[in-house]
Structures are given as structure tokens and as C-alpha cells.
């Protein structure tokens, strides 16, 4: 079975609340996970049991009148902070202050963004270059990196290894799915998929409109998966929920799917 994670423009779960793309799943609460709108999935590492694969829920024409990626609502930062405070040993006010301090503009984008267009190869290359620059800068900061600090707080681990080279490789290999061969893209705009966490790749919906900043945020989000790994004995990979909490601390938009 393969590992799949998605990022939607719609539902992401948040810590303690109800749902979705917030730490896509850990934060928002009840939403689905797979990156921006999909149900939460279990992720396991290559060093442990085979990772499970949970495909996006495929809704038939009678189930869904429109993709949930198109009517997502972004949770306010103070709401996200309260949700995260149920997961990490920090008060909501402290979490909110850390979010302000660690916020990364490359992640803090409106998804899918107003006035977007069907993504092009040029947009994809531009987004990749921006994410690669961001990773190079964060790696150079070492323990002072906000990314490093956020994942340590989210995981509670005493020691983590950050595979920046692997993250950059996934960014360079990121590609569009133009024919729904990877997913139906009713629940997300991007995902990480592969036989194991160690060999996963990034795929982005190539047919739905997004802005360049949204596309860059999507790729950055997906590449942050599997970046931080435990060094102690056992499965080295963090859970998807834990990774989403770390991303939420960095300003990753927490999206929920609103139902009338």
C-alpha cells in the first residue's frame, strides 16, 4: 500500500478544533486531510510497517455538486492558536506569539487565490525555485530556523534529523497531474504520494486555477512532509497530524470546508 497525503484548498484539519487543512488535519479539527481537504490518513515510515494508503474519497456526480477545493474558508490565526494549544504544552497566547514570530510568507498564502489561472510549466518552475531558496536559507540557519523550532515543538521529540536534501529532491521532481491519473482532485490541490514515505513524490492538480503564490505554498507544504525525522529507535517518520501542527505554527493556512 502507498503513502498519500494531500493538500487541498478546502478542508484541512486543525489541532483540537474540527478539522481540515490546518495542520491540515491536526489543527482545524473535523475536516479531512490529504492536504487541504481530505480525510486524515495514517502515515508510516519505511523503517516501520508498510505505510497505509488512503485514496481521496471519490465523490460521484450525485454526491457532490462542486469540488470542496473551491469553497474553503481560512481559519483565523487566533482560532488556530487555540486549537494548537490543545496539542502542544503552550497557552493559546504563547502559541499565537510563536506563530507571529515564525510565520513564513511563502506558506501564508490564500489558497487557491483570487484571479488565479490554470497553472503553467513556467509557474511550476518559478514556484520550485522559490521553495528551493527558502529551504536553503532555513537549512543554513540550523537550530535557529523557524522550521526546525516549529517541528520540535509540534513533535515534542528530544532530537530530530532534518532531511533538507530529500525535501529539495521532492521539490525538483514535483509535477502536474493533468489527466486525473493520480487523483480526482475533488478534495485537494496537491498531494505527496509514493510506495513509502522515503520515496514519495509531489503531485499538483494541473487543471484547477491557482495563483503563483498559492502554487508555491502548496509545493512548500508538500515538501515539508517527511522533512523532520526521529533519531531514536523505531519509525523515524512523524505522523501527518504532527507535521500539520508544525506547518500551522509557520503560518500554513488552515482551511475548512463550509457546508450549508
Shape field: globular
- Uncertain spans, ≥5 residues at pLDDT below 50? 8-25, 28-65
Rg calculated over all Cα atoms: 16 Å
How many distinct helices?
Answer: 7
| Largest beta-sheet characterization | 4 strands, mixed
Question: Strand order, biggest sheet?
Answer: 1-7-8-6
The run of helices and strands is EEEEHHHHEHEEEHEHE
Topology, number of strands: 10
State the secondary-structure class: alpha/beta
- As a percent range, the share of strand residues is 5-15%
Q: Termini distance?
A: 35 Å
How would you state the average pLDDT, rounded?
80
Helix content: 25-40%
Structural description of this entry:
There is one protein chain. Helix content is 32%, strand content 13%. It is globular, with a radius of gyration of 16 Å. The longest helix has 20 residues, at 121-140. With 260 residues, it is an alpha/beta fold. The strands form four sheets. It has a four-stranded mixed beta sheet with strand order 1-7-8-6. A two-stranded parallel sheet has the order 2-3.
Task: Summarize this structure as a short list of keywords or feature phrases.
260 residues, alpha/beta, four-stranded mixed sheet
Summarize this structure briefly.
With 260 residues, this protein is of the alpha/beta class. The chain has helices spanning 77-85, 92-102, 121-140, 146-155, 164-173, 212-224, 240-249; strands at residues 3-7, 13-14, 25-27, 72-74, 160-162, 175-177, 190-194, 201-205, 228-230, 255-257. It contains 7 helices and 10 strands.
Amino acid at each position: 500500500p502507498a503513502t498519500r497525503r494531500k493538500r487541498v484548498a478546502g478542508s484541512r484539519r486543525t489541532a483540537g478544533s474540527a478539522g481540515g487543512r490546518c495542520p491540515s488535519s491536526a489543527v482545524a479539527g473535523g475536516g479531512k486531510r490529504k492536504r487541504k481537504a481530505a480525510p486524515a490518513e495514517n502515515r508510516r515510515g519505511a523503517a516501520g510497517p508498510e505505510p497505509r494508503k488512503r485514496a481521496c474519497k471519490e465523490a460521484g456526480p450525485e454526491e457532490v455538486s462542486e469540488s470542496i477545493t473551491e469553497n474553503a474558508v481560512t481559519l483565523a490565526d487566533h482560532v488556530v492558536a487555540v486549537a494548537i494549544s490543545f496539542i502542544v504544552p503552550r497557552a493559546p497566547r504563547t502559541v499565537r506569539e510563536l506563530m507571529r514570530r515564525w510565520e513564513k510568507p511563502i506558506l501564508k498564502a490564500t489558497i487557491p487565490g483570487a484571479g488565479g489561472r490554470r497553472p503553467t510549466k513556467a509557474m511550476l518552475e518559478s514556484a520550485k525555485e522559490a521553495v528551493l531558496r527558502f529551504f536553503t536559507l532555513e537549512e543554513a540557519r540550523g537550530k535557529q530556523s523557524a522550521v526546525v523550532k516549529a517541528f520540535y515543538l509540534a513533535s515534542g521529540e528530544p532530537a530530530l534529523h532534518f532531511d533538507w536534501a530529500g525535501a529539495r529532491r521532492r521539490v525538483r521532481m514535483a509535477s502536474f497531474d493533468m489527466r486525473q491519473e493520480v487523483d480526482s482532485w475533488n478534495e485537494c490541490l496537491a498531494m505527496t504520494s509514493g510506495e513509502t514515505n522515503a520515496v514519495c513524490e509531489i503531485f499538483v492538480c494541473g487543471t484547477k486555477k491557482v495563483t503563483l503564490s498559492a502554487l508555491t505554498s502548496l509545493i512548500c507544504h508538500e515538501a515539508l512532509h517527511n522533512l523532520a525525522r526521529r533519531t531514536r529507535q523505531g519509525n523515524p517518520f512523524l505522523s501527518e497530524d504532527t507535521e500539520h501542527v508544525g506547518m500551522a505554527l509557520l503560518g500554513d493556512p488552515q482551511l475548512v470546508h463550509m457546508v450549508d
